[in-house]
Amino acid sequence: MQAILPDVDSVAEYSEKLFARVCLPVSRENRVIDCRAATKNYASKTVLRGIHLVVEPGICALLGANGAGKSTLLRLLSGLEEPDSGSVFIGGLGFRDHGVSIRRNLGVLPEGLGLFESLTVIENLMAVGPIYGLTKSETATRAADLIGFLDLTQGRNTAARNCSFGMRKKTALAMALLHKPNVLLLDEPFEGIDPASSTVIQMLLSQLSRSGTTILLTSHILSTVQKIANRVVILYEGRVEADFDPSTTEAGVEEVYFSIAGRPQPEVPDWLRS
Ligand SMILES: Nc1ncnc2c1ncn2[C@@H]1O[C@H](COP(=O)(O)OP(=O)(O)OP(=O)(O)O)[C@@H](O)[C@H]1O
């Protein structure tokens, strides 16, 4: 087996090559995620309690325990669901009036991945290109680049439903990147991904953020968040409980996280101990 650990230069070169041709107008405004007092309830359960969050270019990691509401917030920001109150703007636009424009500016890796299950990896990518306004040949070039870059070559012609979990996630990530959006919403991009591909993805996201992409991602892998995020937001009981820059905070991400969520002190049941 050959290791596929890349070097920083090859990632930078790749990003330039892959993304040079699709040019959405560049301004700070169309790169901002703006969530104002968003509330979300499911039946009698309040999941989000008036979330205020403005995210600018860089990598912002959204943390919180299982069930804290991270995926729910990403669904609101992706326009997949509407808040019960409050509002969401991507690049200064709201989904109700500007859904199509927003989607051309936005790449989403949703919790459920959103794959066409009967299509192969390459067919999934070819299917979404035109939705983002890419020509067939642009889509084919970019799809081939992404498949190589994300180590999907072996599964290229495998139906999504028969791909491993990691391959499925990388395919969905490739679909989110295909049009080089200015804003990326990524639900757990590193979970279930092998270490080599995770390294590739971390380098790519860092490169994209340096060139002005706004990335909001969720993760439970605190060591990765510590490494790549320039902002960390922690959700707790439906509210933003912490919002900090890990590079200028003395306490590490893990320390801040456990100070909010509580450090676990598990009592292993007797019957499992022996
Ligand atoms: N469609 C739905 N109907 C009812 N309840 C829902 C729905 N979607 C989410 N929930 C509830 O909202 C809460 C938050 O779920 P969410 O998936 O946003 O959490 P999360 O922080 O992403 O969790 P995880 O880390 O496990 O992915 C949970 O209690 C969940 O059961």
From TrEMBL:
<keyword id="KW-0067">ATP-binding</keyword>
<dbReference type="InterPro" id="IPR003439">
    <property type="entry name" value="ABC_transporter-like_ATP-bd"/>
</dbReference>
<dbReference type="GO" id="GO:0005524">
    <property type="term" value="F:ATP binding"/>
</dbReference>
<dbReference type="InterPro" id="IPR003593">
    <property type="entry name" value="AAA+_ATPase"/>
</dbReference>
<keyword id="KW-0813">Transport</keyword>
<dbReference type="Pfam" id="PF00005">
    <property type="entry name" value="ABC_tran"/>
</dbReference>
<protein>
    <submittedName>
        <fullName>ABC-2 type transport system ATP-binding protein</fullName>
    </submittedName>
</protein>
<keyword id="KW-0536">Nodulation</keyword>
<keyword id="KW-0547">Nucleotide-binding</keyword>
<dbReference type="InterPro" id="IPR027417">
    <property type="entry name" value="P-loop_NTPase"/>
</dbReference>
<dbReference type="InterPro" id="IPR050763">
    <property type="entry name" value="ABC_transporter_ATP-binding"/>
</dbReference>
<comment type="similarity">
    <text>Belongs to the ABC transporter superfamily.</text>
</comment>
<dbReference type="GO" id="GO:0016887">
    <property type="term" value="F:ATP hydrolysis activity"/>
</dbReference>
<feature type="domain" description="ABC transporter">
    <location>
        <begin position="33"/>
        <end position="262"/>
    </location>
</feature>
